[in-house]
Design a protein that fits this description.
The structure holds 2 protein chains of 2 kinds. Chain A is mainly β. Chain A is built from no helices and 11 strands. The radius of gyration of chain A is 13 Å and the shape is globular. Chain B is mainly beta. Chain B contains no helices and 11 strands. In chain B, the strands form 2 sheets. In chain B, strands 2, 4, 5, 6, 9, 10 and 11 form a 7-stranded mixed beta sheet that branches. Chain B has a 4-stranded antiparallel beta sheet with strand order 1-3-8-7, with no helix packed on it. In chain B, strand 5 and strand 6 form a beta hairpin. Chain B is globular and about 40 Å long. The N and C termini of chain B lie far apart (about 40 Å). The chains are: A mainly beta, B mainly beta.
Chain lengths: ~110, ~110
């Protein structure tokens, strides 16, 4: 099973600033990496797939990069609605696995 | 428009079997390449893939739970059913059905308690 490790566990950033999330896979997952946003009490929403393709409904301030074992999610200028938990998930090998999440909180 | 909705008991006793149904619309599980999966999330904890079923009836199970899981589909009813046998309080979680990573049900919270 591929282990996904996210860092940091919590990210404190002020609105308007940049947020950067990291996700590392225990073995290569090529570009088969997705990011999700989860707000309290809601189901996760697909944010990025194929490591860098934005899903429908998310603005250009969200971007993903990386391949192999190292991945990054960047939010360029934080808006109030962006404060949530972000998960990465590999879908290169079954079982698909999630990272433990990074909570983005208001500084 | 694609929608999915989970249904099933909210409370189950330890050792019982939990059966959840995902009823979906907007796509067909008889279409090549299509799949529906189940993911769960214990309160305040991480997400975990449980099972997947594809249009051709290929099934995948979480290795750690494989002996307790069964996933089936009813194409005519647009439903996918997940059964979890011998439940334990650690199985308390919100259970989601998912299609193509992008479409999620609202989730259903299942509590395992005597």
């Amino acid at each position: 099973e591929i282990v996904m490790t996210q860092s940091p566990a919590t990210l404190s950033v002020s609105p308007g600033e940049r947020a950067t999330f990291s996700c590392r896979a225990s073995q290569s997952v090529s570009s088969n990496l997705a990011w999700y946003q989860q707000r309290p009490g809601q189901a996760p929403r697909l944010l990025i797939y194929g490591a860098s393709t934005r899903a429908t409904g998310f603005p250009a301030r969200f971007s993903g990069s990386g391949s192999g074992t190292e991945f990054t999610l960047t939010i360029s200028s934080l808006q109030s609605e962006d404060f949530a938990v972000y998960y990465c998930q590999q879908y290169d090998n079954w079982p698909y696995t999630f990272g433990q999440g990074t909570k983005l909180e208001i500084k | 428009q694609i929608t999915l909705k989970e249904s099933g008991p909210t409370l189950v006793k330890p050792t019982q079997t939990l059966t959840l149904t995902c009823t979906f619309s907007g796509f067909s599980l008889s279409t090549s390449g299509v799949g529906v999966g189940w993911i769960r999330q214990p309160p305040g904890k991480d997400l975990e893939w449980l099972a997947l079923i594809y249009w051709d009836d290929e099934k995948r199970y979480s290795p750690s739970l494989k002996s307790r899981l069964t996933i089936t589909k009813d194409t005519s009813k647009n439903q996918v059913v997940l059964s979890v046998t011998n439940v334990d309080p650690v199985d308390t979680a919100t259970y989601y059905c998912v299609h193509a990573f992008q479409h999620w049900g609202q989730g259903t919270l299942v509590t395992v308690s005597s």
